[in-house]
């Protein structure tokens, strides 16, 4: 048995993990073609041929819609604005409650606030990390209008149960599939299983255009309302014969021609990226699944995982060391991260959203408490303890690896698995070491580790 690197032994791997390289010559050619054309955006903020953008935007949207059989695909300048569009398009009004996950990127819930809706947080399933149907049912009131589900880390939420609840209570369903492009839930592509949903095209996502997003839906009216919100809808409702003009004041959430041209080339690569992630993700799962005290996700029949992050759940009762110490021991076996994507393991994901000041102080739009004070006599609960599974995942159970991605081969994933196995095999050395006596309550901050390494 070899000595753990954190206790002075030699590490499993010294060589850096390769960075991701996302842009190829196809994207460069596409961007150049648009620059040469001099038409960098094809949108006009009035009804007519260019209300829904230029040639590249239309081609990009068509490609996405056709590949997965979505009736409509609507590009936007970010997925954060895409979520706002979705909330507006399904008709959320001031005082409406929307059931949200607390374990996600902040925009999943703040999108609701932009239309005066109130995020009501339900807990997540421990094995799936996505909204727990039982907890959703407990949070439903006469004011509930929608459920905003997130397919976290690229694995679909429990949609059969969630759609059944939505049907029973007449609720809209919005899918935040930012981390799950091209993912299937029981053979159906995610994004438009509910009323509307979509994907992020920011720099960190599987495929990207720097910033950007795509909405998808099978509903013609929701699609039209989304297009109105994207592009100054107030100028166009009459021309399009829209009689319910609520929530159709538009903004400028338009995708540019360069972004669309790059996105068109990126999209062609998506399938290959997902296949690669599937292969190395399955390899890692096979290596880790028998380890007592670690839990890795199993993929249900007909569903897929995009491994935006590879989640590993840690049981401190089995190892008798903290997650933080375990993670530091694994990290010591591997090269130091020089970039987020080269971080072998991180912990916690994000703080449960309701613990952020916006919910703690109930101050969002203006200073008077809107929209949290919209329903007289109703007090919204955002206290610690609200979602115990989420809090436990954040505080001590969940570890994440961004290594299941393009540019990482099976050899590198094998080194990662070797590092974890080495720490598990030598766990008693770690347990008995002086390090285990430290009370370290600080989460391992990958960003800080990268900063220190780079300077
Ligand atoms: C990335 C992400 C968003 C926001 O997307 P942007 O394109 O960065 O605005 C929203 N929700 C989830 C779950 C995400 O991962």
From TrEMBL:
Modification N6-(pyridoxal phosphate)lysine, positions: 205
Keywords from the UniProt entry: Pyridoxal phosphate
N-terminal signal peptide: none
Active site (record annotation): 205
GO biological process assignments: polysaccharide biosynthetic process
SUPFAM superfamilies reported in the protein's UniProt record: PLP-dependent transferases
GO terms for MF: pyridoxal phosphate binding; transaminase activity
Superkingdom of origin: Bacteria
InterPro entries documented for this protein: DegT/StrS_aminotransferase, PyrdxlP-dep_Trfase, PyrdxlP-dep_Trfase_major, PyrdxlP-dep_Trfase_small
Family: Belongs to the DegT/DnrJ/EryC1 family.
Record protein name field: dTDP-4-amino-4,6-dideoxygalactose transaminase
Taxonomic lineage: Bacteria, Pseudomonadati, Bacteroidota, Chitinophagia, Chitinophagales
